[in-house]
Amino acid sequence: MRAKKSYGQHFLRHPEIADRIARSLTADTTQGRVLEVGPGKGILTTFVAECFPDFRAVEADRDMVAYLLEHHPDWQHRILEADFMKLDLQSLYEGQTFQLIGNFPYNISSQIIFRMIENKDLIPEMVGMFQREVARRIVSGPGNKEYGILSVLAQAWYDGTYLFTVDRKSFNPPPKVQSGVIRLRRKRNADLGCDETRFIQVVKTAFGQRRKMMRNTLRTLCEDPALLEADLFSLRPEQLDVQAFIDLTNQLFPVDQ
Predict the structure, then answer these.
(1) Least enclosed by CB within 10 Å: which of 76, 81, 141, 193?
(2) pLDDT, tens digit (0-9, with 9 covering 90-100), for 88-116
(3) What separation in angstroms does the CA of 3 have from each of 41, 78, 103, 198, 202?
(4) Same domain as 213, residue 114
(5) Together in a domain, 20 and 98
(6) Cα angle vertex 91, ends 87, 97, to 5°?
(7) Cβ count within 10 A of residue 1
(8) CB contact at 8 A, 28 and 129
(9) What is the C-alpha to C-alpha distance for residues 106 and 103, in angstroms, rounded to an integer?
């Protein structure tokens, strides 16, 4: 069977790596409710099934679904032929929370993170394998070139940990890049204390021109030019941590307005 080219999927070959990924999830977070994205030929799924009997796996490639059901007929009611980006996550476990796991297709890995953030109330934890540069970007702190939109938005609601690197030779076909496995755990207090829609708008606008000072990039969002004279607006976006972006959002769009 071939990897699905449109999603850039590469199949993991080493069971010990798959086992390590599966066991990186916290077993008691959601009473075993886990969704795997892009199971492919099922090497990771095998270990997810051992650790979390109430798992589901969503696969968009019809050929891969047929392969999985042929080799694992006991997964008949666990494999969903669907696109994760369009899947009704609310109905997956009847509104109950679940964990997310996967060797995520590189071409949609960032979109998967954004979808997880949109459904943060349902997903308290995620363990995933990404292109190493993307994995580092998600957990990167301010002050370096890897830090960006994905970093700030993920870390606004989740605590991130880079777990380990996986060599490209561990895949078939081998990708051109190394891979990295990370874990995101939702923060105990998920309330940012600002307008979340505006917060996302501020972050995306700021990094739209990351080399410029905030007073220049956020000018179009500011109704009071005097605000732009504050010290915070003299910085560039990669210098600001999550709390600073929350403070900016509250200055531009006070919650009580």
Answers:
(1) 76
(2) 999 999 999 999 999 998 889 999 999 99
(3) 9, 21, 12, 39, 37
(4) no
(5) yes
(6) 100
(7) 12
(8) no
(9) 9
Q: Are 66 and 86 in contact, with CB atoms under 8 Å apart?
A: no
154: left (phi over 0), alpha (psi -120 to 50) or beta: alpha
CATH number, domain with residue 213:
1.10.8.100
Whether residue 98 is contained in a domain is answered as yes
Q: Are residues 149 and 215 in the same domain?
A: no
Using the structure block, give the residue that is written with the tokens 């363990």.
127
Each residue's pLDDT tens digit, 214-254: 999 999 999 888 988 989 899 999 999 999 999 999 999 98
How far are the Cα atoms of 23, 47, 172 from residue 51, in angstroms, in the given order?
7, 6, 25
In a domain, 257, yes or no: no
Cβ partners under 8 Å of residue 216, min gap 6: 209
pTM: 0.92
For the record, the structure tokens of 14 come out as 């080493």
Q: Which residues contact 44 (CB under 8 A, 6 or more apart)?
A: 12, 18, 21, 22, 36, 101, 102, 103
- Out of 147, 167, 186, pick the residue that ends a domain: 186
The more confidently predicted of residues 223 and 127 is 127
